[in-house]
Amino acid sequence: MNNVMRYAMAGCLLLAGVFAGRSEASVVIGGTRVVYPAQDKEVTVKLTNEGNQPALVQVWLDDGDDKSTPDTAKVPFTVMPPVFRIDPSKGQAVRLVYTKEPLPTDKESLFWVNVLEVPPKAAEDGKNHLQFAFRTRIKLFFRPTGLSGDVATARDKLTWKVVPNTKGKGFAVQATNPTPYYVSFAHVGVKAGDREIDGEGGMVAPGSSTVFPIENLSSAPSAGTQVVFTTINDFGALDKVVKPLDQ
User: Fold this and answer.
1) Is the Cβ–Cβ distance between 191 and 244 less than 8 Å?
2) What number of other Cβ atoms are within 10 A of residue 65's Cβ?
């Protein structure tokens, strides 16, 4: 394991007595997701240090294992540069390059971009310090050429139905996605008359179904109940949609 990751795993919290230090990340990613068109040689992720101290940053990709490290993650991408320093109010462009290992050509593939920020060593000023290493993960959608349909209208192709909540009491709604695109949600809920019951967000993969538990939906919805969901598009924008539920 390299020194940056070792520091983050073993020394994310350096604790002794009285605490001093920041509690939020300074390095900001320029976007909430990355789309990698298969025909492109590379894509760029922009990072900015909005703090007042230099930051050491490490970037790597994984295929869904949030416990991955740069040494254990196995993905068909190269990151350049993988480790770098960003001074305050400065930025860094990180290049992601697909290394051409085979991926499905009939649907999108999902990966995750990890950004680990390690703050500089605390000053030896006689005080005790609490220091944090911050790790941020955002989705990367690898999009093959020639996919059927349009990613912008994939949400309209979803079908919805009420199902028992297998993770608890009451009911849930199930989304089935017949398209080759991932569809991401900020919220999924139901609306019956003037009453709207909100639930959590999530994602439904191409050709798959996902169940979204709806808190406080203790009985099966009556006829005319609608599903209400907010999708997240390629640019991170939100769009609220209301559709009939299949009874």
Assistant:
1) no
2) 11
CA distance 152 to 233: 7
Q: What CA–CA distance (Å, rounded) separates 179 from 116? A: 33
The pLDDT of residue 149 is above 60: yes
Distance CA(131)–CA(242), nearest Å, equals 45
144 CB-contact burial (10 Å; exposed 0-12 / middle 13-18 / buried 19+): middle
C-alpha triplet 30, 49, 95: angle, nearest 5°: 50
CATH 2.60.40.10 fits 3-143, yes or no: yes
Q: How many CA atoms lie within 13 A of 130 on its CB side?
A: 8
Which residues are within 8 A (CB) of 125 and not within 5 positions of it... i.e. 6 or more apart? none
Burial-class residue 77 by CB neighbours within 10 Å (0-12, 13-18, 19+).
Answer: buried
CATH of 151-244 given 2.60.40.10, 3.40.50.300, 3.30.70.100, 3.90.420.10: 2.60.40.10
Measured CA to CA, the distance from residue 100 to residue 103 in angstroms comes to: 8
Q: What is the pTM of this model?
A: 0.86
> Can you tell me the mean pLDDT for 122-147?
81
Tokens encoding 172: 């849930």
Helices (H) and strands (E) in the chain — how many of each?
1, 17
> What is the tens place of the pLDDT at every residue in 61-75?
999 999 999 999 999
Half-sphere exposure of 82 (CA within 13 A, CB side): 13
